[in-house]
Each structure stands twice: as C-alpha cells, then as structure tokens.
Amino acid sequence: MPPWGLPTVACALLAAASGAWSAEDFSVEAERQGDGIEVRARAFVAAPASVVWNVLTDYERLPAFVPGIVKSAVRERRGPRVRLDQAGEARFLLFSFPITVQLEVIESAPHWVVSRAVGGNLRRMLGRYELREDAARGGVLLLYTGFIEPAFDLPPVIGPAALRGTAEEQFAAMVAEIERLAASR
Asked: Is the pTM for the entire model greater than 0.90?
C-alpha cells in the first residue's frame, strides 16, 4: 500500500534491492499517465499466504523496512476497513518531495488489500495488492497496481522519476521483508 500504495505507497536501486529474484519472478513497471504515475508490479514470493498477508497489513511496522515511509499509524479500524496516516518522501538523486497521506484501506483476507487517499498532499492515490497462491511452486504471486498523482507541482523530469523510483524501491522492500520473515520460520 505500498506502501504508498499501500501499501501505500518510490529507480536505479531496484536492481540492487531485488538481487534475490530472477527477471521472471520480479517486475515493476511505472509510467506517466497525465499528471500521475501508474505502477504495476509482480513478484513470486516463496512464502505462505499468511506471512504475505501479515507483512502487507502490519501498517505500523512499515517504516521499519519500507524506504521513504517515516510514519504509518492506524487511526481507526472497523472490521475490514482501516484508516491510516502515512508520511514520507519520494527521492531522486539530491531531490526529495515530502508526501503525507490519509488512506482508507479495505482488507479482504487473505486475497486482496485496496487503498485510496482521502486526504494529504496527493490529488489521487489508489493501490491494490492481490495475493494468488501458487501451490505448484509453493508460494504466492503478489500483484500490485496503483496510481499516484500529487497535489503539488513536480518538476517535469525529476518528479516522475522520483515517484517511479520510490514505487520500485518500496515494492522491492516489501517483497524482501516477506521473504526474510518466511525464511526465519
């Protein structure tokens, strides 16, 4: 979610961060769509669905392992609905862009988590994690789709690159944490 995007919600660091996966197991695509960035990511993780689910929904622990997130606090939980406050930044080279967001999250255990921005300095932010168990390979195919459009001006080249890079780095970190926890079991 995602971290932002679930989430919630950030390019050249991807190869270093994802060294444990082969190209067919891990991919992140991010492209500019109007004033925002659309992200599509997928990774096969050798982990039980319960571990994947626990990492995705442990919102308050996200700052411990997701780069760019410095705060993630649950404001309210009502059944499958969760309200979160998150803060962090998107970085590119020497530039950084602060991001604050209030998210409304809906969980459908253990299949998917969707989120959308309902406040903060983002005009729009939508994210969806989907878990598909793969018994033949003994793990889970983790899919993420998201869109982020800041409510602040981004420099034409640097801004989109920062959002792209942050999304890639954060998804890689999420996958790394899932695999780390699965290996420690």
From this structure: no
